[in-house]
Design goal:
Chain lengths: ~350, ~350
């Protein structure tokens, strides 16, 4: 199945909190439950969140008892607000909700049922497009991978972070499918361990050669010449090419540049926020301390009780550390101000 | 009690594997058990390992049934070899064992019992000197800390990493004792979480204000201007100032320099290896994959079974990222070739 899909009036998604130990499908029939599933990270990854939010809007349309378009629109606006509040950093959430709202507001739709159908069809289309876009990004990105390359990857950007196929991990997957002999260093990605739990699980299934490492070890492998190229995702990319992504990405990017290793975020244009001039305008989500201290080691807590914890979920990598930004319309190179805008407007090399 | 001490024919040490959940004292009467305790990290931290090894040599001296000096020396040489093999990176292990062997070989000692007493007395002296040296380092380091500073710290370098007081954490402790208002960002330090488990525990007891963070978050706090200065330890420092320390130190140092944040290893001269021209000559220990994948999260494993794991315990920070090296004889500044040698020879500013 896909990471998230519509099935007969319900939104189904893989509960990623339980992986790799347990594969379980969660099913929701209330858009508020979808908002909660995003907040609590049943589902994560900017593109997957976007698709989940779009399906959440479809649920809201069918949940609404409205018998005329303006009432339905009011209900949809209310649902949009709940979904938008689920997480602050990834822009796809806002992008998807706004896209669905625009479709719903189409004046040609005269009855509530027409609107409901249009909303669901658009959510479905958005999900289908995500898979298609990922394959196009993967093709652009895989062209940057040479036979024999060792690739560093942070967090999870695979099928599980999208509707299917993946962004940065999609690039790795396509390079592997093209028969290139590659090796992947998988950052475990504390605090939530998306690398250890999800990326390792996906790469194992794909048969890609990989080594799981603590995030701290990435610098050692880079400095000692064991990494050829880095691919990461992005939760929001500013107009100037500053990239907000999973916490730890910034350190990686700085150390990559220091060692002359190309560093490429793989970013569907839906993740580019031209309304954000720079990374400093991107809100950084602070999450539950429990994500940091809630692990156990041989049955024992990993930290003393009652301490103060900082847990920013994302960081900003300034554009000067970014070699290029892979989008579905081609690879944008610095200066990003113009090149990225071209990609978003679809004027890149398709 | 001290982290490691001699008590009536036995070596006692805090079993740090169990902290912060359980405070337990391990007691050994066989030097091979001391070697195992170092290997399995009951005790860790370069200075603490050195003292444990010296006490291990004292145990070996008393374990030996030798009734003449040459036989005893042969037994001590054998014990030295076992202790040296416990861990490869921290040079204090070799330094302490060699120092005790030199004392034992003193031609003025005519009977095995004289040698046994001399060996124990030297191990005891080495442990006492460690505490004294740490206080001198702390004074030199604390002079670099300004009132109001926010300090980033990696791994554990406190009382638990030494016989008592600490190296980098000793600096922080002394700044706090001097009444400076400071805040510490504590890197959790994957994979073994010495920051979360040990440094947080020590700072909590000392009453120092701190925030525990995932290692990945350190870059975010540095880039956003929330860190004023970094202090770390070192397991071995090469003659040119390259610093081998806990995995992740290199990334920190690079990002610190990128943000204009001073970066100071705090290094007793026993940790400086003038026989190592550069960091590339320092062997890097690869440890058990279980350290990376052996955690659980809500009762579930954090990674799929049967995967390949890379687990280098240390990395090398080239001297160009190091602002200064704090020793008990003063602070060495670049170029380190001469300045560090002066500190080792005791020609620094005491």
């Amino acid at each position: 199945m896909r990471t998230v899909e519509w099935d007969n009036g319900a939104v189904k998604m893989i509960d990623q909190r339980l992986l790799p130990g347990t594969f379980e499908i969660a099913e929701f029939t209330d858009y508020r439950e979808v908002a909660r599933s995003i907040k609590e990270m049943y589902i994560r990854g900017a593109p997957a969140i976007g698709a989940a939010a779009a399906f959440g809007m479809a649920l809201a349309a069918y949940q609404s008892a409205a018998d005329e378009p303006t009432t339905l629109m009011r209900d949809l606006e209310a649902a949009a607000e709940v979904l938008r509040r689920a997480r602050p950093t990834a822009v796809n959430l806002f992008w998807a909700v706004d896209r669905v709202l625009r479709v719903a507001a189409d004046q040609k739709l005269s009855s509530p049922d027409d609107i409901r159908e249009a909303v669901l069809a658009d959510a479905q289309a958005l999900a289908d497009e995500d898979v298609e876009i990922n394959r196009r990004m993967a093709a652009h990105g895989a062209a940057l991978v040479r036979d024999g390359d060792s690739i560093l990857h942070h967090c999870n950007t695979g099928a599980l972070a999208t509707v299917d196929y993946g962004t940065a991990l999609g690039v790795i997957r396509m390079a592997h499918e093209q028969g290139k002999k590659i090796h992947v260093f998988v950052d475990e990605t504390r605090p939530r361990l998306q690398g250890a739990r999800l990326t390792a699980w996906e790469l194992q299934q794909l048969g890609v050669d990989f080594t799981l490492i603590a995030d701290n070890a990435a610098g050692h492998y880079m400095r000692t010449g064991q990494v050829d190229i880095c691919f990461v995702g992005s939760d929001r990319t500013a107009a100037n090419g500053d990239v907000a992504n999973k916490i730890g990405t910034y350190k990686l990017a700085v150390v990559a540049r220091e060692n002359g290793i190309p560093f490429y975020p793989v970013v569907p244009t839906s993740t580019v926020d031209l309304n954000c001039p720079t990374g400093d305008d991107i809100p950084i989500e602070e999450r539950d301390p429990e994500e940091v201290v809630g692990l156990t080691r041989q049955g024992m807590p990993i930290a003393p009780a009652g301490i103060q914890v900082g847990n920013p979920a994302f960081d900003v990598t300034p554009a000067r550390y970014v070699t290029g930004i892979v989008t579905e319309n081609g690879v944008a190179y610095p200066p990003f101000g113009l090149s990225l805008r071209k990609m978003v407007l679809g004027e890149g090399d398709r």
